[in-house]
Amino acid sequence: MLITGRTTNGGHVRARATVTTTALASLLAGAALTGCGAGGTGEEKSAGDILDEANATMRKLNSVTVDISNRTTSGGSVTNRLVTDLDSRCRSRTTWSGGSALEQIRLGETDYVRPNRAYLQKWKNYPGLTDEQKLWVKTPVDPAGAGRDGLASCERPFDSFGTARKGGSARVEGTKAVKLVVTDKADKAGTYTFYVAAEGKPYVLRTVYKSAAQHTTTSFSSFDEPLDVRAPKAGEVLSVPGGN
After folding, report:
1. Which of 42, 56, 84, 196 is most solvent-facing, going by the fewest CB within 10 Å?
2. InterPro entries under this entry (predicted)?
3. d(CA 67, CA 58)
């Protein structure tokens, strides 16, 4: 909870106040500070401090689910769901407007990748393909190919940047949140909005990026829940030695 005022501070009580008034003021001050997470000092955290604490909390997670939706003014859209341990084990599904989809399982140094028929027709230039693609392709992880063909990394940076200011309170899927608006000199065209949980651990619940050309929403959930990421069945896998 954030302290929004200090009118109950005992320092405002004048010396000539009665013992009863002084006691009442002290009681109100104590009530205002209870549970506020400010280490008992009563100091209000800045937007930058809240964002730093939230990012530090996210970096300590053992698992999280990340849902991303990106729309552009050109009409194209892409969505992605990533279930990850934020290290080397994750499962991802990316879907593009038009029906193209790419699934991925990463286990350490091995990727299992499964594109659907629409993906192969559009992105791999197989226009005559009519059967649905059901097999996974097993391939070594290529560190130099990050982001290529829509493949995801299990890692996510949770770093603060730019200048943050408070934007009021909000609710994200029923959870109270503090709204932080961030601007960055490196991206003058866009604005980032972070929604940080105001109750319990200060998780980043959602981020929204808006510019004239793009609107991206990233939601975080299933914090530290058991991670069920496993390889496909052997009969569903094609092995491609040395590459994709």
Report:
1. 56
2. LolA/LolB/LppX (IPR029046)
3. 15
Segments in the chain below pLDDT 50: 1-41, 244
CB 80, CB 101: distance < 8 Å: no
Other residues' Cβ atoms within 10 Å of the Cβ of residue 63: 19
Q: What is the DSSP letter of 97?
A: T
Token output for 24: 């009442």
Q: What is the DSSP letter of 24?
A: H
**Which run of H or of E encompasses 223?**
none
Residues 6+ apart with CB under 8 A from 235: none
State the sign of the Cα–Cα–Cα–Cα dihedral 127, 132, 134, 135.
negative
Q: Phi-psi bin for 98: left (phi > 0), alpha (psi -120 to 50), beta?
A: left
Give the integer Cα–Cα distance in Å for 197 and 214.
25
Q: What digits encode the pLDDT tens for the residues 184-224?
A: 999 989 999 999 999 999 999 999 999 999 999 999 999 99
Query: Which residues have CB under 8 Å from 55's CB, separation 6+?
Result: 158, 159, 160, 204
Show the tokens assigned to 52. 């730093």
Between CA 166 and CA 179 the distance in angstroms is: 6
Report d(CA 99, CA 132) in Å as an integer: 13
pLDDT one-digit tens code per residue, 49-70: 999 999 999 999 999 999 999 9
Burial class of residue 84 in the structure, from the number of CB atoms within 10 Å of its CB (0-12 exposed, 13-18 middle, 19+ buried): buried
pTM: 0.78
Task: Give how far the C-alpha of residue 113 lies from the chain's centroid of Cα atoms, to the nearest Å.
Answer: 23
